[in-house]
Amino acid sequence: MNRFEKEAPTWDEAPQRKVLTSAITNALFDAIHLTKNQLALDYGAGTGLITLEIAQKVKHIVAMDSSVGMLGVLKEKIQHYQIPNISTELLDLEKSTLDRHFDVIFSSMTMHHIDEPLKLINVFMDALNPNGILAIADLDTESGHFHADNNGVKHFGFDRAIWEKRFLEMGLSNVHTQTAYTFQKETPNGTKETFSIFLIWGFHMVKYTHTFGEAHS
Ligand SMILES: C[S@@+](CC[C@H](N)C(=O)[O-])C[C@H]1O[C@@H](n2cnc3c(N)ncnc32)[C@H](O)[C@@H]1O
Hints:
Elements (H helix, E strand, L loop, with lengths): L2 H5 L7 H17 L7 E5 L7 H5 L4 E6 L2 H14 L4 E5 L11 E7 L8 H10 L1 E12 L20 H10 L3 E14 L5 E13 L13
Parallel strand pairs: 1-2, 1-4, 2-3, 4-5
Antiparallel strand pairs: 5-7, 6-7
The structure holds S-adenosylmethionine (SAM).
The site of S-adenosylmethionine has 19 residues, from loops.
């Protein structure tokens, strides 16, 4: 059983988790303008701590994740609160394709669990509607002490400059990065370390070229 299946039932109970997801949500809302006509995707949505917030600002959001347990917790919330504009989807884009388009694609704290996260940017780009927005939040490079157990952790954070370069290479415009959250955490060896989370976002701008037709008399 992978770590998320095991941790899902108690995932929301860690107080630090709510603080962290609130900080990421606030940074996202400050960075991009969400509207009631947008279709959004939250990739690696987990128990939906951020999905539920985004849902209040968009038309519909798909919460996609590869964990049955994590999505199970979110499904209970959707049912309990009768939320009509969140759908859940069990999918791992490392193994499957994405055949729909979205106005906003967001992912939080998931890329460090993906073998080749920069490859996923191609998948996200292909799935973005014209003028769509891609936003990713994840850890800055860390010592390997962020998780108590590094099982399932594929990267000890990232150099955010790599993401900026990739976003620009993929043709995203107005690419910005900012620190969403900085915090101290006690590490397994008892010392305190500082960790930070970056948010990067960019726009899939479509350049319209106007061709003048022949004049008719
Ligand atoms: C640290 S949690 C983050 C959850 C949520 N985004 C948040 O910020 O609270 C990472 C999530 O990514 C999911 N995940 C890991 N690998 C994945 C993959 N290859 N495809 C889809 N989801 C994945 C896990 O199941 C888990 O729910």
